[in-house]
């Protein structure tokens, strides 16, 4: 029963709307399915970092150091606000039809790396994610030797559901059935995504 509860908790955390969702959605709509998938990969890679430092206890030290924690918090807030403002400024420019799968396949490697970097930093610099993993792994890690394996298994599960969920978001919102409807609202969606990222950033930065 405990494993089921932990699995459901992890799933609810992943699918709850947040900055990662907004970023994957925006990149998928503006640059095609492949770029959305690369962004999802970046988010998943950041999860491996959260798991790593949580298991090593570094995350606990960061959470107990107000200066370091606030530096991470403000860096994350600033990055989200930067992405949001950039999205708002370019919302009128990015009104072309959604790229087809073939068009998205010819994206340059630098664009793919930029998408990975955006997803990675968006998730990595979110102290809420850090505190979530700290709280979870503080329950999973015990003096028993088997707890390390249990934590690794749960960490692998979290990486997998992050990758699966955000990849699903990229695939669904670039499907042909939705493209026609989304293209009509693309400018407004871009504006909403940009505003959403700014709001997430302000909430993160102003929260005491």
How would you sum up this structure, described in words?
There is one protein chain. With 208 residues, this protein is mainly α. The protein is globular. α1 packs parallel to α9 (146-172), α2 (19-31) runs antiparallel to α3 and α3 (33-56) crosses α8 (127-140). The protein has helices at 2-15, 19-31, 33-56, 58-64, 66-90, 101-105, 109-124, 127-140, 146-172, 176-184, 186-206. The chain is 84% helix and 0% strand.
- The structural class is mainly alpha
Total DSSP E strands:
0
Quote the beta fraction: under 5%
Ranges where pLDDT stays below 50 over 5 or more residues in a row are 101-108
- What is the N-to-C succession of helices and strands? HHHHHHHHHHH
Mean pLDDT: 80
Q: Kindly provide the radius of gyration, computed on alpha-carbon positions and rounded to a whole number of angstroms.
A: 18 Å
Number of helices: 11
Question: Quick one: overall form?
Answer: globular
Q: What is the makeup of the main sheet? A: none
Helix content: over 70%
What is shown here, in short?
The chain is mostly helical and 208 residues long. 84% of the residues lie in helices and 0% in strands.
Write the layout of secondary structure elements.
Elements (H helix, E strand, L loop, with lengths): L1 H14 L3 H13 L1 H24 L1 H7 L1 H25 L10 H5 L3 H16 L2 H14 L5 H27 L3 H9 L1 H21 L2
Helix pairs in contact: 1-9, 2-3, 2-7, 2-9, 2-11, 3-7, 3-8, 3-9, 5-11
Q: Could you list some keywords that capture this structure?
A:
208 residues, mainly alpha, 0% strand, globular
